[in-house]
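Morning F.,

Quick status update on the modeling queue. The single chain you submitted on Monday has been processed. Sequence for confirmation:
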Amino acid sequence: MAKDLKTKARAGELVTAHGKVMTPVFMPVGTQASVKAMTPEDLYKVGTEVILGNAYHLYLRPGVELIASLGGLHEFMNWKSAILTDSGGFQIFSLARMRDITDEGVIFRSHLDGSKHFISPEDSIRIQRSLGSDILMVFDECIPHPANYEYAENSMKLTINWAKRCLEEYQTNKKEGTALFAIIQGSTYKDLRTQCTEELLKLNFDGYALGGLMVGEPVETTYEIISHTAPGLPEDKPRYTMGIGLPEDIFRCVAEGVDMFDCVVPTRNARNGCLFTHKGKVIIKNSKYTKDPHPIDSDCECYTCQNFSRAYLRHLFMSGEILACILNSIHNLHFYIQLMKKIRQAIQKGEFFDYWQCFLATQNEHSMN
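Structure tokens below.
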């Protein structure tokens, strides 16, 4: 493992049954067995090593039994590299029409058709195992912000109990090459985050995620919690911040020693016409690009930048063409994957802090909004 000289940033390697993953890494979100507007081949070409799937969505549609009968999630979506699956705790919090949380699990109604379901921590692991996940996440309760101390404390204790049960279920039929990550909760209360971390470390999970962030709290509070919690995690285990995805946020988290990221930011922004470059964002609908013959980024080697002008991309976007989503998504994910590669290289050279500051300065100086 390589470490930066001026920050806590580190570069390493995570080994899975479907290949090695170099960290720090960004994981494109393939919630429903598909990264929106991207084929698997597109994902390979931009350098993707691992994607994220979601147990909640796949459990509801098309169903875990169907996916398992067709060879598991890798075969179902023709993806040969690693897959991390979110257990569904956040989606039950954010999407389910009704939820009743008990010690045993969660009763909820589907956001699709209102049908009633129950998922226990053990069920969550069985679902992810049936999907064939490389990295499984424990079932946790993701609470809203703000939350009072008593609620946050009770939720944190529930999350720890569920994590123990997830681990027991996982170990009953552990598959070689897979990993189970715990999720640290505790809302914005540092003492609860510390307590949760200490209890979960006793269970010796394969990795640790910081959950319950970016749910409405001030961004500086998010950074305070990460800065407080990450240093207490094992040096030899992956660290994962869930749902954090703006480039400037990734840099700050990497500086605190975080290794793994996922977010819909690059693909959602692509579909909305917001394109990322090292010189700032390009809002492709802007009229100044109507006749612009240049690529999104003249220094970018992605398929989109090598073949199409801003003028053409603006035309596609303004016309509502599906191709706009495809080409924009290819560019944004290429930007993110290459950004992580450059971050890793900077860490290995002991130059991460300098690269971080240079990136921020260039963004501020050359904003294209």
